[in-house]
Amino acid sequence: MCLLGALPARAGAAVATLDDFAWLAGSWMNESERTTTEEHWTDVRGGTMLGMFRLTVAGTARMHELILLEQDGDDVVMRLRHFGAGMRAWEDAPIVFRLTEAAAGVYLFTQEDAPTTLEYRRTDEGSLVVTLSKQNDEGAVQRTRFEMRRAE
């Protein structure tokens, strides 16, 4: 995937810096009849941002995700872990994504050891759209999209 209209190149050829994610701080949510998705982010501080995602279906929390965004030299790195009930981790170690592309309001993170991407998009209407693109065992790309608005 290539993003058009990339941000101007920075010294050191950084795609973007953690400060470019300051808009993400706060609470984002989408509620439907059966499903609630929510994502909460801290302010940029100490070279990091901390995020949390929760998926609730029919009143039951199905997944929790802890997310760390951090500046790593010229790169922005995302580390995340999924948890189920009782805070049982789904993975043995954090999943690591690096910011590989950026355009006005669009940020693409690529997983280091798998054909998986996470796209964070800030729409003109002020929504947050997160799209997970993952290759299945047959080689087809599956996309899961979460659209959220700022929680009040």
The oligomerization state is single chain
Strand order of the largest sheet: 1-2-3-4-5-6-7-8-9-10
Beta-strand proportion? over 45%
Total domains, how many? 1
3D shape: globular
Counting DSSP E segments of at least 2 residues, the number of strands comes to 10
From the coordinates shown, what is the CATH architecture? Beta Barrel
Q: Alpha-carbon distance between the termini?
A: 33 Å
* CATH top level assignment: Mainly Beta
What helical percentage do the residues reach? under 10%
Overall mean pLDDT stands at 89
Indicate the radius of gyration in whole angstroms. Answer: 15 Å
Provide structural commentary.
The chain is mostly beta strands and 152 residues long. 0% of the residues lie in helices and 56% in strands. It contains no helices and ten strands. It has strands at residues 26-31, 35-41, 48-57, 60-72, 75-83, 95-103, 106-111, 116-122, 128-135, 141-150. A ten-stranded antiparallel β-barrel has the order 1-2-3-4-5-6-7-8-9-10.
How is the secondary structure organized here?
Elements: E1 26-31, E2 35-41, E3 48-57, E4 60-72, E5 75-83, E6 95-103, E7 106-111, E8 116-122, E9 128-135, E10 141-150
Antiparallel strand pairs: 1-2, 1-10, 2-3, 3-4, 4-5, 5-6, 6-7, 7-8, 8-9, 9-10
Outline of this structure?
This protein is mainly beta and 152 residues long. It contains no helices and ten strands. It starts with 25 loop residues before the first strand and ends with a strand.
Describe this protein with a few key phrases.
ten-stranded antiparallel barrel, Lipocalin, 152 residues, 10 strands, single chain, mainly beta
